[in-house]
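Schema walkthrough. Field components (list of strings):
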Amino acid sequence: MAYFGNNQQRGELQELYADLNDLNFEKKKEAIKKVIAYMTVGKDVSQLFQSVIKCLEFQDIEMKKLIYLYIVNYSRQKPDDAIMVIQNFRKDVRKSENPLVRALAIRTFGCLRVPKLNEYLIEPLKDCVQDDDPYVRKTAVLCVPKVFEVSPELCPALLEQLQKLLEKESNALVLANLIQSMREIEVVNGKQLIVLNPKIIQKLLLAIDECMEWGQIFILDYLATYDPVDSKQAEIIIERTLPRLSHINPTVTFCAVKLILKYLDYLNNGDLVKNLCKKISPSLISLLSWNQPEIQYTILRNISLILQKFPILFENEVKVFFCSFNEPYYIKYEKLDIMVRICDSKNFHQVLNELMIYINEADPHFVRKTIKSIGKIAVMYDKALAEAVSILVEFAKNVQQTNEAVQELFIQMQIIYRKNRNLYKTNDSLKILFSIIDYANEPEAKSACAWIIGEFAEFIPKSVEKMGEYVDNFILEDRLVQLQILTSGVKLYIKYPSLCSALIQQLINSAKDSFNPDVRDRTYIYWRLLSTDPEIVKNLICYVAVGSSQFQKDIRLWETKDLITALENMGSISNLFHKLPNQLYKNIKVRNNNQQEVKIYKADEKQEVPSKEQEIKKDDQIQQQQQQPKQDFDLLNFEEPVSNNNNNNNNNNNNNNNNNNNNNNNNNNKIDVYDLI
Amino acid sequence: MISSLSFINQKGEILIYRVYKDDISRNEITQFCAKMIATKENKEFPIINIDQTSFIHISIKDIIILATTKTDVNVAMVLEFLYQLSKICKSYFQGNLDENCIKKSFVLIYEILDEVLDYGIPQIADPNLLQKFIQEGGVQQETTINIEKLRQLTFTLTGVVSWRPIGLYYEKNELYLDIIESVNLLISAKDTVLRAEVVGSIELKSKLTGMPECQIGMNDKLLMGKQQKQTKQTIGISIDDMKFHPCVRLPKFDKDRTITFIPPDGHCQLISYRISENINIPFKVNVFYSEIIDNKLEIRLKIKSIYDNNIYGTNVLVKVPVPKNTVNAITATALGKARYEVEEQSVIWRIKKFQGDFETSLRCEINLGTTNKDQVWSKPPLKMEFQIPMFTASGLRVRFLKVMEKAGYKTNKWIRYLTKGGEYLHRL
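Field assembly_structure (string):
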């Protein structure tokens, strides 16, 4: 039988029509298969509706399934025709002794999704919810949300029936599906439907042991959203969940981990918490080396959340996150990210040693990310500084211009110098950087170079000449670079007034007419300042930030107040993208009324007060707490390093500035005087 | 939950398309397919979210299985489900899943898809179980007409022991155990072990009558410590983590670490485990790369096997990376064969049989072409593959396997051990 016939002739539908109406059963069956094949490739075969449903008379179950598939696909296009099959369905549901046929009928019935057909469905559905056969019951339970979605007004009695079933159902599989089905209805309805009491919880816990893997996931997932009433209850539920950590289905394990992690907050026994952590850790690590990369990836994406709240779980486990040569790149990137987070003042040596290897890999993005990570570690831990810088310098010695990662090198070195100005004294990093300074061509890298030249002009040979080159090409540069060239140019001028007077003139001339208001504004400010009192400019621009606080910011991936909501949703799609459900899905409400606009990637300026859940585990992990790894976006994406720096300085010297402005205003006639200085 | 499932071929054509919820259109999927074929990124990232619609996919050789959803589902669950679905399909097609099979048996696949998901919620995903009532060309009439048998079937489907049907009978009761370990090893250029880990699995193949109650015992340190005073022989090994087939009673294991179960009929992976302590590394590798002088590079390699000399490693393969501009390689070795393979960019050294406690070496002279001279060559790691029967790198042993059944029959039990090279890497 042809599946993708290329030579579809016009008469095909007619041919099928004839076959469907043929008296020969086999011929009919073949014809129906063909119809389904056309449907799959997207060809419209809805015209055959009448002929197809006529074939329902036969009791052949394979054929029945195909016809049902067809009906489901076209029922909404042909609601009037679909009404003709209702009788068939009802007959199947009510009269058939075969539980598979009953279940099949009720399942398909629910998928018709034609509002006016649903009223015929309610009664048989009610019967099926009470069917003797658990398989039919299970199917009926899942049929309720289907009907509810299309015609909620028909359902109140059904929902009540479900609630009753929740109390008396004894089959574990039916119970698990019941929970899932009621949750689906809750999502559509927006109202709570499942009412838990200790007896039902007890039943659910028993059901975990008895139902198949998916059922276990439904129940665990649901219980993870429940808030236990006290420590005792939390303890009982955790105890029943623990065995699931050894299930072969990674999702069962993961859901169990999620549930236990959430309930830990409710325990008031510190030792128990510690013990539980010891049990969870190996299980989680097994998931991290899972042999299906896609699953490994989803788990990795959730690690940062766990790491933020439970650093204790990965104590001494950096090795788990080492990248292996043949891994898919999306896994490598995640691992790299986590390695920086997990790095602390104890294990930085191990991490840096590993990162050093990655520098030689072939994937340029990966190398670039590695350089970035090394830079971050250098800034985060003073102890790691020397080692990290020596790796970067080594890289700089052998690097080639074509290597994209060299751009990142400039950016990172700039940030490191900003924090540790005296670094230039201890090694030859400056000299080496300057020797490859022409490699910089990305705006951010160029601006980093411009900053380095301005800052360390006196230690770099030919710094003025280099700056001259930058000034020559000023107009062609990106705004970011222009701003930095301006500041650095002024710095050079302060440092070598006589040597650079021509340079500064050229610079201000080309900058004052810039199309960019930022550049223009800054030009004028410098201009006026220079023309008033170069001494002030010196204080202002050559101001040396000591231990600037912007490098010690503790920026976490998740805001502390979101942690619990995030944890409850661990493993979900929103969590995978490091967002809360209501941020990804507009129609979803988050429990706990957590409705505020929360932007996660944004840095939180304030020092955070440890929240309740962190206090609980504080004893175990004061140390880790203090070394909360930083997030990607803290030091690296601060939008324009240059202006930030200056803003800070400006703030620091706010009074000065105001005075200056006043002075300027008073001495307007002095504006052009800079020529004479 | 899951809104739709599709099977897609390499060209981005939809082979199978099944909708479970109404919130997705075929159009969205065709658009996504086009995108996926167009860019590498879309193809490789397992999950992509476009405007509140999530596309989750896995690739099984040339076939992409794609699930879509508009709700905030558990991603790992969807992925695991897709993998299980691929396993189900493979079990119907004798281990293959390719475009031809799918086209030929699309009716069967639709039947499967009808059963594994309902309203996008995963249901039965056990291949053995599905085989009982879904078969190519329809199940034999007997089972579909006999109501008593049908009752039994639905009872099994929804029951506590859903993986094993009632009333199995075998003339000869047999049971096969395979312990397969793969060693993941990462050694730094300075010859220190960065990571050594064994990921193992215990595969069970059973042909047993009735509903046998089984118990398996390994030399698990925690278990043995409990049972008796430790003598030299009975000191067990410590297992970091074990994961069990659904048939194993987990609460019992959690309580006293005994592993009891009623096995599924036929083949299953009973246990998978991970061990990171005291790994017996089977091969020690010494490698030396000379400086490149006059477009010539010399590589010397020494391999020593560190297992008993009555055991043999088989199909040993060493991948020695060489620069891209290699022209040819002259190799000299006493054991096996080595030659330069362009597509692998390596000298591949194959040894059919490698005795235990034995040392052998390889010497290669690599002639390089003159192109891209100043490009520094970053060496990928050296990789090894091997199989060593009757050896476990972790030292794991099965101590007993008890089978108890009402009928009290005798069971023939067979056991095999095998250690394989997993990610067995030496950095250079």
